[in-house]
Structures are given as C-alpha cells and as structure tokens.
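Aggregate trends can hide what the representation actually does to any particular protein. For completeness, the protein is quoted in full, as a sequence line and a line of structure tokens.
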Amino acid sequence: MGIDMDDTAATALGSGAESDAQAMLRTGQGLNEDQLGKVLQLTSDGMIISDGAERILHANPVALALFDVDLNDIVNTPLEDLLGCMKAVDDASLLAHLADASSQEPDRVFQVFRRLIQIEQAPIPITSDSQGSLTVLRDVTSLVRGEEKLAELRERAQQLMNRTEHLSKLDYLKSRFIADMSHDLRNPLNSIIGFSSVILKGIDGPITDLQREDLEKINSSGKILLEMVSDMLDVSQLWAGKTQLRYSPIDLNSLIQEALSN
C-alpha cells in the first residue's frame, strides 16, 4: 500500500514522531507499508489512517491501546464507530487549563476510558487519485491534570497567605492589648504601693498593729501585681522583637523562698 503525505498531514504528525520519521514525511515521497509502519511506531501519539469513505486502513499501537482493540478487528470499519465511544469535553475551566498549558487550540478534546484526548485530523493522499485522512490522538490527561493541580496549589497557597496575614493582625492586636493594659495597670498599682508605704512609715499618723498588718499585705500584693505587669510588658516587647535577653546568675534559694512566701 503506497501512501503520500502532504505538508498538512506531516504537521499533524510532527510533534510525536522522532526526527527520522519526520524526515521521511517531509520528503513528499510516497511511503510503502514498511516505511509507514516505522513512522507509526515512532510516534508517541495515537494515529489512525482512514480512506475517503472514512474506513480505517491502519492504526498504530498507541491508538489500539487507547481503545483496547486489535487492528484486525477495526480494519475496514467506519472510523466513526471507533471514535463513537469518546465523549466530548465541554468543561470551560478544563479547556482553559489546556489552553494555558498547550500552544494548540483545545477545540476538540474528548474523554475515553478516563483519559483526555485531543484530536487533530488532516487530509492525506491515499493514492494519486484518492484522498483519506490522518487522525492524531494526543493524550493530554497529565497535562490538564497537572494544570488543575497547580491551580489548586496556587489557590491553597493564597489561602495560607491570607490566613497568615490574618493571624499577624491578630498577633499585633494581642500585643497591643497587653501593652496598653499593662501600662494602664501600672499607674494605679504604683499609687497603691506608694500610699501604703507612706502610711506604714507613719507619715500620716500612727496606726494600730492590725492596720499595719493589713497595709503590709496590701503593699506586698501590690508589688507582686506590679512585677506581673512588668513581666507582661517584657513579654510583649520580646514578641515585638524590641528586647534582647540578658543572662545573669541568680540565687535559686532566695528565689524559691520568695515564691513560697507569696
């Protein structure tokens, strides 16, 4: 069987074939059956050759595997019967992903056995006086799914960025609240400690032993609260990165005794 292929058919075949197969096609010479078989074997796309009546003349292994058929079972059968099991894809977002990932127009994308196939067809001379067609089946499943996954990852990354920004704002508000609250508490605590100290020193007049005992508790509790407020301010400064830790030795026994006494 001698088959001539024009430039249109060669272009449709081009991307999947190796360089030697492309060279044979571009010579413009007829291909005998052995040469045709070599070309079809070298392509990574599915290829089907049909005559002027759209009856299948030849199909390569990729096309046969795609439809899970044997060549002898489809030769001389209508091409439409074989392609009839393919469902046209009209998902706009999916086609948009394919358009972004491919330089070719995704106007004919079909689904067959969970695979996404892009179909291209070109006229091809069967003999000197008869025309047929070359159907190229390009599997774009991984291409489309990859674009979809990338879009999902981009959306997830944007969500994480938004979440991070929201948490940063909450952290700032928390630090601001602690700083403002601590500052507002220090003034009344200093007053409590200061006035109780004045009374304990007898500056305002004599006090009873019971009053002294109560005032000492007030003064001591005020100092404890003031230390807590100061610690909160230090922590807020650390969170804001405005304070550096300085390490120094401490008397652990004194620290324990002070904690127990409080």
